[in-house]
Write a structure and sequence with these properties.
Elements lengths: L5 H4 L5 H24 L33 E9 L5 E4 L7 E5 L4 E8 L3 E7 L8 E6 L7 H11 L9 E4 L8 E4 L23 E2 L11 E3 L2 E3 L13 E5 L2 E5 L3
Antiparallel strand pairs: 1-4, 2-3, 4-5, 5-6, 7-8, 9-11, 10-11, 12-13
Length: 252
């Protein structure tokens, strides 16, 4: 004998109850699907979604760089770029390019976003007025802390040898006049040891205990080599104004 489907085989009085049961099953199932979907709403926001507004960095492109409520603030830590042509971005990984920095460029770390990026400030390489830019770079683009410390302590030129001077005492007329080794009087001004320095040398270094190597001055947060003109700087460097003082820079 041919069997009829279960629903059609139910009595007329039982069919409304069976229909209600099936409707409830459908509603509960939809609720479970929605809950499962909602559970993923707590995922970490994409790196290009800004969550906070931060001001006061001193960078002229501050409004173009994205900031995050979940970023970790760093205490203005000096650092050095460890890779040539390091791209600085408006947000980690896929942001718009701010500029490219050369290996050895001095920067300051001000924040990090998980293991995705490090936020830095640095001198604008396209300007010679000491103005600042900021942006995100990959953590691996920074030089190892040990390498930066070695550069600061061993590669920096140390100017300790005083020029030779002679005191002329040829009677009352010349008493006390200090001249250089060539005999020309310069009223006590140290000799320049042969003119402007043109050999290679380090133009920035990290301070140790708040003090700079001999021959350098502190232009927070770095030690810099002072100058008056380009020829006072190592070959390939330029004399630029930074923080109101003239120091050697890798770019104009």
């Amino acid at each position: 004998m041919k069997r009829r489907p279960f629903f059609l085989g139910a009595t007329a009085s039982a069919r409304p109850a069976l229909g209600f049961f099936l409707a409830c099953t459908f509603v509960i199932g939809c609720g479970l699907i929605k809950k499962k979907k909602d559970a993923g709403d707590d995922d970490e926001p994409p790196a290009n979604a800004p969550t906070v507004t931060v001001t006061g960095s001193g960078a002229k492109n501050e409004k173009d760089v994205l900031r995050y409520a979940s970023e970790t603030k760093l205490a203005n830590e000096p650092a050095t770029i460890g890779k040539d042509a390091t791209k600085v971005k408006t947000f980690p990984a896929s942001g718009a390019d701010v500029t490219a920095l050369a290996k050895g460029t001095a920067v300051v770390k001000i924040a990090k976003f998980f293991s995705t990026g490090v936020l830095i400030t640095f001198d604008d390489p396209a300007a010679a007025d000491g103005s600042k830019l900021m942006g995100w770079i990959a953590p691996e683009a920074l030089a190892a802390p040990g390498a930066a410390a070695t550069t600061a302590t061993t590669a920096a030129p140390v100017f300790t040898a005083a020029p030779k001077v002679a005191t002329v005492d040829a009677g009352a007329k010349d008493a006390g006049v200090v001249v250089d080794a060539g005999g020309a009087a310069d009223a006590g001004k140290p000799a320049d040891a042969g003119g402007p320095v043109q050999s290679s040398g380090t133009i920035t270094a990290l301070p140790t205990g708040g003090k700079c190597p001999a021959g350098m001055i502190l232009v927070t947060p770095l030690c810099r080599r002072p100058c008056a003109v380009d020829t006072d700087c190592p070959k390939g460097a330029f004399c630029t104004s930074s923080g109101g003082r003239k120091t050697c820079s890798a770019t104009k």
